[in-house]
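Supplementary material to the annual report.
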Amino acid sequence: MSSQEQTQSNAELEIETEIQSERSDRETRADEPVLEVRELDVHYGDERALQPVNADIPEKKVTAIIGPSGCGKSTFLRCVNRMNDQIDVCSVGGELYFHGKNVYDDDVDPVALRRKIGQVFQRPNPFPKSIYDNVAYGLRIQGKTDDLDTRVERALRRAALWSEVEDRLDESALDLSGGQQQRLCIARAIAPDPEVLLMDEPASALDPIATAKVEDLIEDLAENYTVVIVTHNMQQAARISDKTAVFLTGGELVEFDDTTTIFENPANQAVEDYITGKFG
Amino acid sequence: MSTDTDPSQGFADEIVRKDNAENRRVRRGLFGCAAITVLTTVAIFVVLIDNAFGFFFDVRLYEATLQGGATQQITFTEYFTGARWAPSHSTPDFGILPLINGTLMVTVGAAFVSIPIGTATAIYLSEYARPEVRSKLKPALEVLAGVPTIVYGFFAISFITPIFIRPFFELFGVRASFFNALAAIIVVGIMTIPMVASISEDAMQAVPDDLRNGAYALGASRHEVSMGVVLPASISGVFASYILAISRAIGETMAVTLAMGAQPRMSLSPLVEMMTMTSFMVSRARGESAVGSIDYQSLFAVGLTLFVMTLAANLLNDYIKRRYREVYQ
Ligand SMILES: Nc1ncnc2c1ncn2[C@@H]1O[C@H](COP(=O)(O)OP(=O)(O)OP(=O)(O)O)[C@@H](O)[C@H]1O
Ligand SMILES: [Mg+2]
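Predicted assembly:
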């Protein structure tokens, strides 16, 4: 190993331990849910998109959200980091507590909230900048610019993209394939180390190999992060998640339980029909 | 649907191109309209070149081509480097630099007004304003763009110069001329703000919301999204608006003639009377000079110079558009 590589991996280690110590502060509250959803409902204009939702999302676990198209999965995700604020016609009712603080309180700054709760979108949306600058964007605006190169490399490695882009970091991200762009967006979201990561069908544009890598990443992430993932792939939900929420048409959260219970012994007949493919 | 016995044969028939008379008529009509535009441009260019040739040489270009031989009466060196423009003086001089000086003064000065204010307006409209505000402000901008330029000229001499510029500089004991470049810079700047704002705003609106959401989700503030994501993503359209505003300022005539006067002068002071290429052309085109005189032909030489400058701006615009265009899927 060359001395340059040595110092690099040392730097990586330092960041790692730094993160570990940051995390250990949170360890003390580990048994309480990180997100508590209380009677949360959403309207787009007069259309109701979510029936009142109640759920406790556990810390450092993977929670999967499944359900037919248009049932409000993306809408629910956007409630968590208040991305619904960007939609003029959208109004949110009820409460959503993050570490015990209602994120819909007037004194909550959505910009600060989103630095703790990252998101990967359903459609890949890289910036028209270089690959490097895409990953560095969040780090730069959040002022985490020490060891920028190391952090960017680490995020790209974890998103299983590094080997494909390491020689072309300066090239435009728009020249990447759709699947590569999606992994780039994953790297961009995890680079600033959010506490909660919301992923909206992150693997829908990926081939089986990349999907497997992203699933590995999610399992890996769950050691330090809380992951909430929307997926249309039942096997994927069963494989990677600890908890599963099933939304059905009309924006109703029909069942929310341990993943094994949902898949082996669901309480609700509609959920069983949906999972076994008899529904919609 | 074909009812042919051989289905593959019928299918092949359907995809074979048919001779379509109506199609051809429409295509010819449209081509005719496009040709009118192109022919007009060519005709203007030919007239300019022909007469400008007559200015530099003792015969017109068509005469020179038919009969052969022409002697140069005004050298290009005199025209492009001479510092005195006095075409109808008893000892005439034909150095275009004072006119270029006036034109560049207005163009560059106006760009310093319209580019920052126009860009800021575009960012406000696109990223900050609520939809109700935007739907009222945008038409207001378009009204501002539709005001005849001579009205801006009157605005300059009846308001900007007497009420704003002269009293302000009086405070420092500096006397501003009644006709002055600063007034022209201000009105041409104001006049081109809507162009910069409106075209830039269109370019910013074309940036997909997915990009904004990507940045907001990373904890970017509105300011960071506007400056760090939307502006760079729309930069080709924004630059195009700058170039259009600049070429509009180069060609602007009535407002500058009224505001800045008609005194050719080499100067960098914005407080004195100057003349642009366009003001020279209006003042001389009123018919005082005899057709065919060198004084008359100097109009065309200046016109050609102006034409080349705006053409260059437009080519630059095309180049920038191609160079910086981003493709979104
Ligand atoms: N910006 C919006 N404006 C108005 N209505 C919206 C908007 N976004 C979503 N909706 C509506 O809200 C409902 C839920 O949409 P949402 O995108 O949350 O569904 P989804 O479960 O994510 O679907 P998919 O699996 O297809 O992504 C739909 O009926 C949709 O039409
Ligand atoms: Mg969705």
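The pocket of adenosine-5'-triphosphate (ligand 1) is lined by residues A 44, 49, 69-75, 87, 89, 122 (CB under 6 Å).
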